[in-house]
Automatic annotation (TrEMBL):
One of its GO terms (molecular function) is zinc ion binding. This is MND1-interacting protein 1. The keyword tRNA-binding does not apply. Keywords: Coiled coil, Metal-binding, Zinc, Zinc-finger. It comes from the Eukaryota. Pfam families: zf-C3HC4_3. Residues 107-147 form the RING-type domain.
Amino acid sequence: MQWKQEIKEKEHMVAMLAEETRKVQIHKAESRAQLLKLRKKVEIDSRLARDDRKRLEDELSRLRMSCQMSDMLLEDDSFWSNSIEATASSSIAPYESSHETSRHWNCMLCLQNEVSVVFLPCTHQVICFPCYERNIKTVGGLCPYCQVKIEESIRVYGPSS
Ligand SMILES: [Zn+2]
Ligand SMILES: [Zn+2]
């Protein structure tokens, strides 16, 4: 009878132990699951952070690019307006005095008076009115600059005439 009791107790102990082991194992599994979950969360978080950073970097580089683009466009604008200005002034003033300080253009014939006649249709403004009057008959009514027949001449007045 004694040994039966012992066996029973032993079985009980084994059962208890098994139960304990099971509990521990469950706990272990739970904590492992918890750990995995936590690790996954950290991974996701860090991936999100990485994505965020990547997105930010993309945004930044896009901004930089558009900045550069607008810089280039601005440069282009100034380039174009500069070249337009240069073209305009060169077409308006083919005989601009070589003196940088002089603001008027001198007659290509007498080289003294300010130009004061515009020829049509060539629109050249290259000689002064006195020279035009003096030479119109001898030059045969041709523009002294381009030799195109002058169909009309317009007396113009500059700031110093
Ligand atoms: Zn002249
Ligand atoms: Zn002409």
